[in-house]
């Protein structure tokens, strides 16, 4: 454990390094974030991150590597109805919508380190009743484990004292070849449908076929031409419900490095970093710009409270929310 920096109120953010099974993982308590990730034999980091705390506290570094929630992604209008009660949530995106649980959601909080071993680390946070407009005292715990064969497993558990909305996501930006952009990365995902969105990235309604769109990744697709075609910040529809056990949902490859994703979640938000702007120097030694990394975020579908036919993000009191995502890394 080492000191990573201090927040404006003086609270200390800590950094912890794990090394096992061919992976070297650095996490920080701010947002329970992945700050750095290395694969043995690869000279560059596999994620975007910053060497100091300051960039994480700015708009330019917000959510980099964080566990975002208690409701990841967007809720239209910052409002939802739960058991007949109108919830007025924090509208932290252009004053219109709620993004990643509000301006002080879990990705913008300093978590407590609650467990540490040679191959795992766990962080926990308490989101009080009414926090950002959400009901229920909610306890959340995120555990990172390094497994044999260069596997990073991410488990998120949560429990609430009242019915609430709960949908967490791990928000790392991946760059597997160490270049300035992800143009030469190839993405594969078997999803046959995606969610079309409006200009505020709010889903329009029912899923649409990926056929003939920039969201068709059923065969390995180089990202460069797709980035020229459109801005990708969409949910790929994997299932209609969350599963008990993770299953393969996507693969990302660049150069000699491949990452395979398995998850319990019914959706995969794909965001190609179109709004990343050069700012502070990253752990790679240069400033990140547009398309410097790709966020592949297993989660439930966005704006679920306004779409009864979407996978539900309702969490009953006393029921344990459990999400598992597995990242398998290899060199070709």
TrEMBL record:
Put simply, this protein is called: Aldose 1-epimerase
BP GO annotations: galactose catabolic process via UDP-galactose, Leloir pathway; glucose metabolic process
Its UniProt pathway annotation is: Carbohydrate metabolism; hexose metabolism
Record: active site: 171, 297
Which domain of life does the protein's organism represent? Bacteria
Record has Glycoprotein as a keyword: no
Q: Which organism is it from?
A: Paracoccus limosus
Task: Give me the reactions it catalyses.
Answer: alpha-D-glucose = beta-D-glucose
Which lineage is the organism of this entry classified under, starting from the top rank? Bacteria, Pseudomonadati, Pseudomonadota, Alphaproteobacteria, Rhodobacterales
**Do you know which InterPro entries this protein is assigned to?**
Aldose_1-epimerase, Aldose_1/G6P_1-epimerase, Gal_mutarotase_sf_dom, Galactose_mutarotase-like, GH-type_carb-bd
Family recorded in the similarity comment: Belongs to the aldose epimerase family.
**GO molecular-function terms, A-Z:** aldose 1-epimerase activity; carbohydrate binding
Q: What UniProt keywords apply to this chain's record, in alphabetical order?
A: Carbohydrate metabolism, Isomerase
Q: What is its EC number?
A: 5.1.3.3
| Keyword Isomerase recorded | yes
Which CDD domains does the UniProt entry name for this protein? Answer: galactose_mutarotase_like (cd09019)
> Where is beta-D-galactose annotated to bind?
73-74, 171-173, 233
